[in-house]
Design brief:
Blueprint: E1 8-12, H1 17-27, E2 31-36, H2 57-62, E3 66-70, H3 76-85, E4 91-94, H4 100-103, H5 108-114, E5 119-124, H6 139-145, H7 166-189, E6 193-198, H8 199-204, H9 208-211, H10 214-217, E7 232-236, E8 245-249, H11 253-262, H12 277-282, H13 284-295, H14 300-308, E9 314-316, H15 320-325, H16 327-331, E10 335-338, E11 346-349, H17 372-380, H18 384-392
C-alpha cells in the first residue's frame, strides 16, 4: 500500500515551488488532482522557444503522478464547482501570487467553511505577513534574499545564483513535510489547519551550517569559492574539460592519511606541514597544489575510485550528460522512461525516497484537463447533461476524458 494512501490533495499550484510539493506527495501515494484553467493551464506547460510541441519538459518533470482537472475558476459556475469539491479533499495547496486566491473567492476562511477538516497550505515568496508580503517572488529572488546567493561564488567575485532551483523545490519539499505532519494530526484529532511557508524563510534553513561559522569567520561571511581551508576543495583532473574536476572533503586525520595512501604518497603523512589539522590549515595552498599534481594525471572517475576506496569522501563533478550515464544511478534504477501521447518517450529522474512500504509506479504528467469528467463524475456524481452544460459554457473543456 502506498505510504499516503487515502490522502486526497486539490492542487492549485503552478511553475515549480508548489508543484514540487504536490508531486512528492503523489509519489508517496496521495491522490493529487491538479486544478488548472482550461484555457492555458499551468503556465509551466508552455515551453521555451524551440521546444518540442506539447507540454514542456519543465512541466513534465514536476507534475508526474497527478490528475488534471480543468475548471474556469474565475467564472461563478467554476468557483461553485470548486467549493463543492473541497469537502472531498483533505488538502488544498496553492502558490499563486499574493492575494490571488482571496480575489477568486476561495481563501482559507471560505475553504474552511466548506470543509472544516481541510488542511489549507499556501506557499508564498515572503509569507502572508510583514512589509514584503505583497511582493512577488521566484527562485532566484528567494535565494538572493535568504543569504544563499551572497555566500556563493569565487573569492572577490560577484554573488552567484546556484544552478539548482533550491528556492522553488527546496521550499516545496519543506511544505510537503508540513502537510504530511498536518495529515497525521488530522487523523488523530479530526481537525484541519492552515499552513503557510515563505520561500525566503525556507531558504534560510539551508544557511544554518554557514551561519554557524560566523564566530570563526566574522559576522559577514564572504564568498569562498570551492575551497574551505584545508578541508574542502574542488581540483582539476585530466583531460581538462569543463567538468573534469573532483571534489573532496578531508575533515579528520584518518581521511588525510587515506588521501596520502590513495595518492601513493605515504611520505606526506610524515611531512610537518601536514601533520595535523592546524598545520594543514596553515599550509593549505601547498596541500592543494600537491593534490592537484596528482589529480591532473588521472580522470575524475579514476581519482574518485582511488581515493574513495581509501575512505576519503570525494566525488566526480557530474555534468548533465554524466548524470544520465552514471552507472551507480543506473544500477539503482533511478531513471525511468515514460511514454507520452503527444511527446516522444522521455527519461525522468525518479523518487529519491526509497521506502519498503511505499510502492508507487511513476506515471507521466497529465494532459490539460485530461481527468476532468472522471473527477467530476466520481466526486460530485455529475451526469452527462450537467457536464455538457458546463462544457458549453466554457467552465470545463470539451471531451476531457479521451
Amino acid at each position: 500500500m502506498p505510504a499516503l494512501n487515502g490522502l486526497r490533495v486539490l492542487d492549485m499550484t503552478q511553475y515549480e515551488a508548489g508543484t514540487s510539493c504536490t508531486q512528492i506527495l503523489a509519489w508517496l501515494g496521495a491522490d493529487v488532482v491538479k486544478l488548472e484553467n482550461p484555457k492555458a493551464g499551468d503556465p509551466a506547460r508552455m515551453g521555451l522557444p524551440g521546444s518540442p510541441a506539447g507540454d514542456s519538459d519543465f512541466f513534465l518533470n514536476w507534475n508526474a503522478n497527478k490528475r488534471s482537472l480543468a475548471i474556469a475558476i474565475d467564472e461563478p459556475a467554476g468557483r461553485e464547482l470548486v467549493l463543492k469539491l473541497l469537502p472531498h479533499y483533505d488538502v488544498f495547496v496553492e502558490n499563486y501570487g499574493p492575494g490571488v486566491v482571496d480575489k477568486l473567492g476561495i481563501g482559507y476562511d471560505v475553504a474552511r467553511r466548506e470543509n472544516p477538516r481541510i488542511i489549507y497550505a499556501q506557499l508564498k515568496g515572503f509569507g502572508l505577513s510583514g512589509p514584503h508580503a505583497g511582493y512577488k517572488c521566484f527562485d532566484s529572488i528567494a535565494q538572493a534574499t535568504s543569504g544563499v546567493t551572497a555566500t556563493t561564488g569565487e573569492v572577490g567575485g560577484p554573488p552567484v545564483k546556484p544552478g539548482p532551483t533550491f528556492g522553488d523545490s527546496g521550499t516545496g519539499i519543506q511544505l510537503a513535510l508540513g502537510i504530511t505532519a498536518a495529515y497525521v494530526q488530522l487523523l488523530q484529532t479530526g481537525e484541519g489547519q492552515h499552513i503557510e511557508i515563505a520561500m525566503q524563510e525556507a531558504m534560510t534553513y539551508f544557511m544554518r551550517t554557514i551561519l554557524s561559522i560566523r564566530g570563526i569567520l566574522g559576522d559577514e561571511i564572504s564568498r569562498m569559492g570551492n575551497r574551505f581551508g584545508a578541508i574542502v576543495d574542488t581540483v582539476p583532473c585530466k583531460p581538462g574539460g569543463p567538468n573534469d574536476w573532483l571534489n573532496m572533503s578531508i575533515t579528520t586525520d584518518r581521511m588525510w592519511q587515506g588521501l596520502c595512501r590513495g595518492m601513493g604518497a605515504p611520505e606526506l603523512m610524515e611531512d610537518e606541514r601536514f601533520c595535523d589539522a592546524a598545520a594543514r590549515s596553515k599550509h593549505e595552498d601547498a596541500l592543494w597544489e600537491r593534490v592537484t599534481e596528482w589529480t591532473l594525471q588521472r580522470t575524475k572517475h579514476e581519482a574518485m575510485k582511488a581515493l574513495a576506496e581509501e575512505g576519503v569522501p570525494c566525488g566526480a563533478v557530474q555534468g548533465t550528460v554524466d548524470l544520465f550515464q552514471d552507472p551507480h544511478l543506473r544500477a539503482r534504477d533511478f531513471f525511468h522512461t515514460l511514454e507520452h501521447p503527444v511527446r516522444e518517450p522521455m527519461e525522468f529522474l525518479g523518487n529519491p525516497i526509497h521506502m519498503t512500504g511505499n510502492e508507487v509506479e511513476l506515471k507521466r504528467a497529465p494532459l490539460l484537463g485530461e481527468h476532468t469528467e472522471e473527477i467530476l463524475r466520481g466526486d460530485l456524481d455529475l451526469k452527462d447533461a450537467e457536464l455538457k452544460r458546463l462544457s458549453a459554457g466554457g467552465v470545463i473543456p470539451t471531451g476531457s476524458d479521451s
